[in-house]
Write a structure and sequence with these properties.
It is built from no helices and 11 strands. By secondary structure, the chain is mostly beta strands.
Length: about 120
């Protein structure tokens, strides 16, 4: 069974930094595209950043220049380095991944990790 396990969330003051990690494992799963999304209370889930297996990245305008997405293909792990955090970045952050090979076309989500930025 494929699992995505996130870590690294927490409480930080405005202007601070956090690094999120998400490791995919189970059933010989290899990730194709990977990404981070977030959902604030009362709002819809929104894209934060994505990265392809080849390393091409895409960011939401609201995080460009402050967040960096990266991945370690050997570890099936995606990271989100967040700098200069703002109170409006407060949300539950979810990672996702779509699969290769036998898992082609299937998308998996992590359980979410809370990021809270105090002003």
């Amino acid at each position: 069974q494929v699992q995505l396990v996130e870590s690294g969330g927490g409480l930080v003051q405005a202007g601070g930094s956090l690094r999120l990690s998400c490791a995919a494992s189970g059933g010989g799963f290899s990730a194709n595209g990977m990404g981070w999304y977030r959902q604030a209370p009362g709002k819809q889930r929104e894209l934060v950043a994505t990265i392809t297996s080849g390393g091409s990245t895409n960011y939401a305008d609201s995080v460009k220049g402050r967040f960096t997405i990266s991945r370690d293909n050997a570890k099936n792990t995606v990271y989100l380095q967040m700098y200069n955090l703002k109170p409006e970045d407060t949300a539950v952050y979810y990672c996702n991944a779509d699969g290769l090979g036998d898992y082609y076309g299937l998308i998996y989500w992590g359980q979410g990790t809370q990021v809270t930025v105090s002003s």
